[in-house]
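pasting for ref. prot 1 ->
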Amino acid sequence: MRIFFLFLFLGASLLFSATVEQMKSEKRYALVIANGLVTETGDDKAVASAQALASFLKSKGFKTVTAFNLDRAELIKTFRSFDKELTPNAIVTLVYSGRMIVHDSQAWILPARMKLEGLPQLRLSAVSFDFLLQKLQRHTPRVSIGLVDAFAYSGKPNTTDGELILDAIKDVKEADSMVRWNGKAASSPLFGHVTGAVGNGHDDMDSLADKLSKAGVHSRIAAADFYFNVPSKLLTPADKAWQRAETKNSVVGYEAFLIAYPNSAYTQTATGRINALKAKEKSAAADSAKNKELEKVEAELKVQQAELARLKAEQKALSNGTENADAAPLYYEPTEMVAIPEGIYLMGSDRFDNSKPVHMVTVQAGLKMSTYEVSNLEYSAFLKATGTKYRKKKLLKNESAAVAFVSWEEAMAYAAWLSKVTGKTYRLPTEAEWEYAARAGSDTLYTWGDSAANAAQYAWMATNAHGFVHSRGLLQPNAFGLFDMAGNVAEWCLDGATADYKGAPTKAEKTGSDNDAMKIIRGGSIKSQDEGLSPSYRDSNIPTYRSETVGFRLILES
């Protein structure tokens, strides 16, 4: 199994605390090594990453030597040439990007085209990173920096911990730093984070650590007076502590700063920010408690209203004077319909392959869509009136919840039945009508914007639904006043499924396909992650498919 480890190793041989003038005059060297020819297919990402960092170091005044895709002899020759150029009291940086093996507590660089047939072969064919660092120390550099961006293999059975690499690079005893990125990417973001975090001003290792942490790279770094940019002045300990406090921007962070530096130039500002943050936290807590209580009251009210509607309908059926009151047609029309304004919009998204190409669609006037998804109460009336079988009766207990476990064929049958008993024309929305209504005038990734941060205000989804379908209308509606267009239950549309939008109709009332084998599902559900909540996200299944996360809503034709 290939494990991807990233870290920044810092060996600091601090002979003195440099002044700004000394920093301006001292020499800085960098050797950048990369190997993208270890595997059979090659890995040019390792070289590309190293090339980018080499260019960055050159721009910052480092005398930079590069060694890309070299065999062992070529690599050692390049290192010796680099080593001869070094002068005492300089900044020395050693960079490696590629494959690395940890064995016998040492970290080994694998040269290009090396075929590892056994671990004992390492000493003959690989290059010890420890050895290179040790060699650099002979020149007594003021600071030596090791940047490693490696695929790591451990010689110890069942060991996948990247700490082994740090432990193995042991020759510089002062070392106490590591950066590890905890994501799952196909290529390294470490060098990009380093170059991106360094601005035009002075950055010592403390401020760099804070910036990397903000970028999602966790680190512990300790070295004085290291810099990528020559500073105009050296920061005091209080300056550095204040930078860290500002990065965290928390009550705890500012209070810790005041304990350490009670009489600094930042004391008054820190006190003001503590008071402001505490007031904000108090207000947020009060609003949260108020909103939860309001949601609870609204949910109870909706249940009571649904029950009252059911009792009134039963009473009306009994008062018709029929001998068999149970045989009277009992039904519930959608309690609220939203008039969807006419308009033109761009349907689809370049983000999803089956939502391309983006194309213009016209929506005619007179379109009405149900404010809520069809409920358990409404669907139960259909089951009773038609004798349709429903195997998941436990799902019907919450009458105000959206109905689920309904196939496309059953949703179509419900619309036909409701049209018959009411004398009106109800149907499923076309896919184009559904997306227009879901977007509600927006052109962003989600109805509420491009960020998923506010999703829980609009959608019952995997992170907040706790695995069950909720009563309708408890969260925020979209701009057209439609509830639960994202999340809760996914919704059947009239259309057959298509691979993309090539040849799609330009009028919303037209279906994109009459494909009888697969039907469109939209909107995401209680099991969806962020992208599934986008108005452009398309799903599909066979017409007889049932799921505890799929339901529907209706269109009323004029």
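and prot 2 ->
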Amino acid sequence: MTQLLEDVRRESIAIPELQRPFVWDTIKVRDLMDSLYHGYPVGYLITWQSVGAHLKGGQVAAHQQILIDGQQRITALRAAVAGLEVINKRYQKKRIKIAFNPLTEEFATLTPVIRKNPEWIHDISELFNAPSTFGFVRGYLESNPDIDHAKAETTIGNLEAIKNAQIGIIALDDELDVETVSEIFIRINSKGVPLSSADFAMSKIATYGDRGRNIRKLIDYFCHLAVAPHAYSDIHDNDDEFAASPYLSSISWLKDDSEDLYDPAYSDVIRVAGLVGFSRGKASSIVSELSGRDPETRKVDEARIPVAYDKLEDALLQIVKKYNFENFIMTIKSAGFITAGMIGSKNALNFAYALYLRLRTDGSLSEGERKRIVRRWFVMSMLTGRHSGSFESNWEQDIRRIAQQGAANYLKQVEDSELTDGFWEVALPNALETTSTASPFFQTFLASQVASLARGFLSKSITVAAMHQQSGDIHHIVPKDYLQKNGYPDRGDYNQVANFALTETPINIAISNRPPSAYMASVNEQIASGQLTLGEITDVDDLRRNLEENALPASLGLVSAASYPQFLTERRSLMAAAIRRYYEGL
């Protein structure tokens, strides 16, 4: 164990996770020490040769290994045995102190009660770092004159012997390809904290010396600040290395950000960076690039490594740039997707952002044309599920063809292939036969209403957009209670999205459980008398427009339980037609 910790200190073994908040609690650290003390197995560590890794000071490590499995155990040992600090969730450095009772041979997290008890060694790292073991034992015995000195000396000796405990290391073959190592990384970590190929990429990034560690932190901190802007001061005050780098200023704008439409996780940033910097869709492909592997020959050329890090850094700085990020968000919102809950596919956002950033380098495109392409691509992908399933291969194919044919030409080709008359008139109405309000088809319909400034059902002035952001909810057009009492007891019948509309709560209350024939009669009486009883519409043309804005048939007042199935069919067709008009107008 002592040799292992020394290898980590000298960076012969790279532990990128040391740069991130420690996720183990102190109980797990205590249990690890107890297992080592009793000679229990603690599992193998697994490493892989990291080509082109940089040590502190900038020199290249010819034989540095990346720790593939065992990062939390190493961090725990550094904390408990070496007495080194870990980083907490606020990015502050803190000590984890593990106490040991030589009389009971018990390990425990140091507490105020234990601190007052001289029978306990309050911090076992003091023993391992003591200049003299004899002096440490003598001091302990002087503090406990009435205990069994022989037993205490024996158990303290057993505790010190932990430093000689055997911890096995499995070194993966240097010739293994990155995809295989990435899969090994994912599988062996699946039983602990779930990890992915993006975690593997993050580990690889951090091996490139100070620059690599700070690039990794740039990704981590950008994602963290996107959801917790208040953490900026913690990062600024507690991470001196990163604060001194040029990267902190590039994300400092997030401390005042309150937008939550697109809060990318580090895996999302890795994917976007892969598309922007390398035209690659797989996180493992980024590892290949950073390892100097030529994608054509699949051989390592270390001269490619610094170029790859330059590309990665450039892509990341584009991703985190305030102007780019905010303009992309505005582009998506201009398509009617104004809240995060409307977007069920983070990958659709990821690809759209990568596309936006790549198109920004195309000087032949105006900003308006650039945004038009991004809007249409995003909505098309929402409607077709283009970025689900084996999306990484699709991403690379799309990026390659966009580069070859031009974004506008390739988008038109995809539209002609995917968004046919058959899609709009048959496939889309069929897709709207669902009870899921999270369905991308229903959410795209709502986005079409937002984009067209449609008003809520039977509202005179309150828009769908306003209700999305304030009060307002999705309610049944043909009331649930009415349907249940008239032959439709199943949720799959009355909760069809074609029976939903965004409606002001007071209007929904006024409708109550009345069928459309009853409450539409009230609206017609209101128009005739001018006395408000259900909403505020007092004009017959305004009522007609409101029904059109909500993709409802003009004959809504004739809908009954008997005609409910026909109503759903007609509404789905009207919704699909509304989505088509919206898309073609983007």
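The chain is about 55% helix and 5% strand.
The longest helix spans residues 564-584.
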